[in-house]
Every structure is written in C-alpha cells, then in structure tokens.
Amino acid sequence: MTLVADELLRDTSVTEIRQSRAAQRAPAPVAAAGAGPLLQVDGVSLEYRTAEHIVRATHRVGFDVYEADRFVLLGPSGCGKSTLLKAVAGFIAPVEGEIRLGGRPVSGPGPDRIVVFQEFDQLPPWKTVLQNVTFPLTASRTLPRREAEERARHYVEKVGLAKFADSYPHQLSGGMKQRVAIARALAMQPSILLMDEPFAALDALTRRRMQEELLALWDEVRFTLLFVTHSIEEALIVGNRVAVLSAHPGRLRAEFNSHEFDLASTGGAPFQAAVRRLHERLFEHEHAGAGEAQR
Fold first, then answer.
1. Whole-prediction pTM value?
2. What is the pLDDT of residues 78-128, one digit of tens each?
3. Pairing relationship of beta strands 104-105 and 39-49 according to DSSP bridges
4. Residue 13 pLDDT more than 70?
5. Separation of alpha carbons 178 and 207, rounded Å
6. Is the pLDDT of residue 58 over 60?
7. Alpha-carbon distances, residue 182 vs 28, 40, 74, 129, 167 (angstroms)
8. In terms of CB atoms within 10 Å, which of 21, 183, 261, 286 comes out highest?
9. Which are the contacts of 227, defined by CB distance < 8 A and separation ≥ 6?
10. Cα three-residue angle 282-274-212, rounded to 5 degrees
11. pLDDT per residue as tens digits for the range 133-168
C-alpha cells in the first residue's frame, strides 16, 4: 500500500504540549516488529445507487489501523468517509478491494465492531441508562444478565453517569446521551470502536468536553478507534493519525501523524500551522483550479 508522506506534524514539538496533562498522555503503542495491523483497508472502492444512477463514494482507498490507534478519517462533506466507516462495520460491501479485521475479511456486521453515530435517538427511549448499556451484552449473549449488569455499571461509571443509571434518555442532555452510547459500545469490548461524527450535533462547549472525555477514556482503556469528522481541529485533537480524503469520490490524499496535539495545544502556533496545512491539503485541488481560472 502506498501512502502520501508528510513531515509537518511528525516533526512538530511544542513546549506547551509537553507541559500539559494531556500532552503527557503516552502515544498509541507502536506495532512491534512483525506485528500486523488490526484493520486493513486495501484498495477499497464503494458505490451506492440513487434513483437515477450509481454513485462512486470512494475510489481505491487504503490504510492500516494498528491496535490502540486513534485513526481519524478527515474529509469534506460527500467524500465517502461515513460510507467507508459503514463498510468497515460490515453494512456495505466494497465493489473493489477488501477490508480485513484481524487478518480476516469483513463480510458483515459483528460484535467486534461497534458504531457510535451522531444521532441522539440511537438509544431505546423505554430503557434506562443502565438498561441501554446492558442490553447489547445480553442480546448478543456475550454475558449472562448479572455479569452484563456489572460490566454495564462499570462503563456507566467510567463515562461519569453513575448518578443517572436509572434515568431515561428523554431526561438526558445531548452530551449525556452520547456518553451512554460510548459506554454501551465500550462495554461490548469490541476490537475496534467506530465513531461517525459523534459530536457534530453538540454545541461547542459540550463538544470540547466530550473530546476531552473520549481521550481520558482512551488513556484508561486503550481501545482502538476509527473516527470520522469533517473538522480539522477535531481530527488533530482526537487522532494520533489522520487520513485526509479528497472530495467526491473520496481518495486517500495524505496521512499525518498528529499525536503531539491535544486540547491544550489548540491556541499554539504549531497547532494553527498544522490546521492551515491540513486545510491546504484538503482543498489544494480547488485552489489549483481557481489559480488556473485566473490565468
């Protein structure tokens, strides 16, 4: 697999980052010599049908995700990043290429891949917080009921909702509902957690808090994360690696290392320089086209 290399983020070093608590967070473990990737997306093209024609969402996209990676798919609206995440989840089959998890081809949905969407209505409204987190464990026969409830309580506590365990979704804020969805996903202990713009519908302050809480959870659990966003800032904060997709149809344009950045570094000059560079990479074809038009 061939990727476009970029030195910008890998070479960045900032005093403020080292001094912050989040900056002291250990980076995702580097794969041991000879260890293969957990997730392989190999030359994947995806299509979907409209009433009039077939649309190609992605074209021969390829990347590897290793255990404990926080891998972000960044791209403009319509680039196929959410479609690609659904393919990793097993909801869509590639028309070209292959997706492998643990070396095995992905042929459909499974409990080893859990998706957290941005919609707040993903929780059954008739179940309490604890029941919502417990249900997938019992429905999938992953655990007996008593053990399922114990694990569910553990993850409800981890996301800071122990006091709301008996509350119903309509009694929760949007951010709290997303915390329930994250707890429910992590309780299943999947091989990889898939998050499709999970904080996009939240207000700015709640979104920032959720980003911080997600990273704190990763500090403790070290789960593997595939995260979709169209926000450059969020990609740099959440991810330790960022794959940049082109506009429709999505092609892999570049891959960046971004483990140096976190919420504490957003106001720094290196972070802002990285934002500008990613913006240029995202829209360089548009800029080139505009330049040609002006000649």
1. 0.84
2. 899 999 999 999 999 999 999 999 999 999 999 999 999 887 678 999 999
3. unpaired
4. no
5. 10
6. yes
7. 20, 24, 21, 12, 16
8. 261
9. 70, 71, 72, 73, 195, 198, 235, 238, 239
10. 100
11. 999 999 999 999 999 999 999 999 999 999 999 999
CA distance 244 to 7: 14
Does the pLDDT at position 295 exceed 50?
Answer: no
**Checking phi first, is residue 148 left (phi over 0); if not, alpha (psi -120 to 50) or beta?**
alpha
For the beta carbon of residue 52, count every other beta carbon within 10 angstroms.
6
Residues 207 and 178 sit within 8 Å (Cβ to Cβ): no
In single-letter form, the type of residue at position 56 comes to R
Complete DSSP assignment for the chain: -------TTTT---HHHHHSTGGGSPPPPPPPTTPPPSEEEEEEEEEEE-SS-EEEEEEEEEEEE-TT-EEEEE--TTSSHHHHHHHHHTSS--SEEEEEETTEE--S--TTEEEE-S-GGGS-TTS-HHHHHHHHHHHTTSS-HHHHHHHHHHHHHHTT-GGGTT--GGGS-HHHHHHHHHHHHHHT--SEEEEESTTTTS-HHHHHHHHHHHHHHHHHH---EEEEES-HHHHHHH-SEEEEEPSSSB-EEEEEE-TT--GGGTTSHHHHHHHHHHHHHHHHHHHHHHHHHH-
Read off the pLDDT of each residue in 31-51 and give the average, rounded to a whole number: 85
Taking the C-alpha atoms of residue 183 and residue 152, their distance in angstroms, rounded to an integer, is 8
Instruction: Tell me the C-alpha distance between 33 and 18, whole Å.
Output: 28
